[in-house]
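Input record, target 12 of the design panel.
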């Protein structure tokens, strides 16, 4: 068996990569920008060469045909997401940049297309599964994929056992933090749905050619208004304690296996597109941590990575930091990613988060997409941001029932809800839920009613995490069209914020995932932040 994962990291490499990341983040460059070698096209862009999707199909098919002992096997690549991906913390974007970058390099090698770069899916522009993604092996219901869990288990049982024996102690420590201390733990986690992560055909993808649209709540989470709010977030990562906004990349944590607070980008488009891909029944690979089995995973995360680039350019134009600062940068940059393989199936040399701060690591750029209008012309640094104002809601109903909402009311000064300048951070509600393991995959709408008026859709919450337990905080932008009539100086506006279980589609049978849910999530806290 080819050794597939990193086993040791030298102190010299650690120090050199950390120092390089630190220097790159604080030292301006006078060198003119050079054109990237590879262009990632939006999948519906007429400028995208037709060969892009042909090469993607060819590479996927080759990975599907690789033996289960090969780290470049399509399913083996998906295992990395189970083993190591960070969610709900500030390594979310950097890890996924590395993940899709190494997959892209492998597809380039296997397809023979030396100009290949992954396309991305701009769900703001096109809030439905692109028609091309139902063709051939771009659809996980294709016959080239493993159709049943029984066949999957038979094919991978022995290779997973052999793989476990190759893990270094550092890798075992990471896996242990995720409750994966043995192959038995792995198979318990990856078991057939609804209890596990494997979804059998013909339900490998929940949205179909006949019904490809994202649901209404998810369309709100990918709308231009939500994207604007995400891009106007002023800090890369907030504190674990919640003294500031969660941040564009989500909040700090002690390690990339830790749990913190989700920012707008992760809470809204990321989580909810994953959830919507389960379809009306809530069952498909994209709702589980085997989501990279579905080829659309990489187009979804490509768009999130593109938005990180847009945010970075916006921050630079406004004279704001684009990465953590000081000791935070050192801690963030030195975090280790120990499971990636290169196109030859060998452990990668770049194993620190700081290796993936810039797209130049894989030498690519993006065709323009939604959100580009948020990047202003470069100019002098904007004035210091006003201090954040924080208003805690009085929880009036804590338990979210099968069809019952829960939430509370925050008293917010009318002046704090006035239309803000374009460079001002967004006004948000941070919703903290107490969750249990069986809440994975549950979905909710978030409604805001100002002054007792009609409720307005603010966004959604999908529970998508490698450890669903305890208090988890999601960030929801307040609607831009929030009507406020309290005009008297100092008057407070009561904002009623409700978390509502997402209803099944008309005529749809109850989801097996919801039938398996044994807990009643609790709304623990709601905080409104304005500036």
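The sequence produced for target 12 reads:
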């Amino acid at each position: 068996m080819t050794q597939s994962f990193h086993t040791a990291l030298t102190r010299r490499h650690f120090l050199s990569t950390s120092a390089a990341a630190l220097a790159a983040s604080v030292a301006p460059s006078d060198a003119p920008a050079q054109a990237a070698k590879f262009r990632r096209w939006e999948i519906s862009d007429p400028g995208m060469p037709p060969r892009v999707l042909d090469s993607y199909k060819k590479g996927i098919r080759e990975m599907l045909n690789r033996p289960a002992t090969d780290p470049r096997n399509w399913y083996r690549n998906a295992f990395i997401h189970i083993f190591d991906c960070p969610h709900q913390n500030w390594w979310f974007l950097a890890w996924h940049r590395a993940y899709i970058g190494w997959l892209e390099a492998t597809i380039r090698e296997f397809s023979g297309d030396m100009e290949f770069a992954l396309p991305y899916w701009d769900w703001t522009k096109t809030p439905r599964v692109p028609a091309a993604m139902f063709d051939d092996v771009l659809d996980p219901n294709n016959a080239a994929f493993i159709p049943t869990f029984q066949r999957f288990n038979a094919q991978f049982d022995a290779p997973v056992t052999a793989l476990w024996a190759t893990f270094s102690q550092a890798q075992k420590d990471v896996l242990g933090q995720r409750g994966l201390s043995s192959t038995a733990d792995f198979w318990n986690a990856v078991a057939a749905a609804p209890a596990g992560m494997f979804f059998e055909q013909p339900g490998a993808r929940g949205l179909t050619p006949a019904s490809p649209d994202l649901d209404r709540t998810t369309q709100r989470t990918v709308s231009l208004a939500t994207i604007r709010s995400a891009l106007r977030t002023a800090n890369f990562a907030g504190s674990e304690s919640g003294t500031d906004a969660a941040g564009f990349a989500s909040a700090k944590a002690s390690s990339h296996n830790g749990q913190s607070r989700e920012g707008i980008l992760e809470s809204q488009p990321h989580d909810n597109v994953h959830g919507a891909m389960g379809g009306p029944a809530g069952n498909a690979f994209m709702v589980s941590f085997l989501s990279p089995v579905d080829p659309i995973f990489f187009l979804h995360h490509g768009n999130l990575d593109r938005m990180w680039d847009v945010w970075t350019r916006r921050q630079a134009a406004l004279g704001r930091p684009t990465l953590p600062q000081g000791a935070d940068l050192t801690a963030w940059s030195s975090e280790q990613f120990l499971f990636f393989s290169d196109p030859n199936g060998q452990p990668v040399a770049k194993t620190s988060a700081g290796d993936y701060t810039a797209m130049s690591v894989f030498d690519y750029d993006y065709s323009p997409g939604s959100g580009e209008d948020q990047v202003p012309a470069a100019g002098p640094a904007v004035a210091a941001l006003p201090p954040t104002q924080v208003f805690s809601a009085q929880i009036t109903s804590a338990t979210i029932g099968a069809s019952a909402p829960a939430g509370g009311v925050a008293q917010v000064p009318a002046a704090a809800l006035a239309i803000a300048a374009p460079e001002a951070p967004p006004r948000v509600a941070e919703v903290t839920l107490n969750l249990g393991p069986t809440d994975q995959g549950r979905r909710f709408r978030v409604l805001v009613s100002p002054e007792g008026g009609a409720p307005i859709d603010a966004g959604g919450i999908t529970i998508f995490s490698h450890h669903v337990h305890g208090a988890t905080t999601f960030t929801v932008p307040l609607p831009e069209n929030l009507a406020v009539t309290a005009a008297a100086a100092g008057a407070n506006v009561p904002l009623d914020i409700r978390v509502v279980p997402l209803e099944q589609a008309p005529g749809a049978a109850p989801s097996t995932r919801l039938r398996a849910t044994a807990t009643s999530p609790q709304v623990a806290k709601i905080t409104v932040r304005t500036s």
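DSSP finds 13 helices and eleven strands in the chain.
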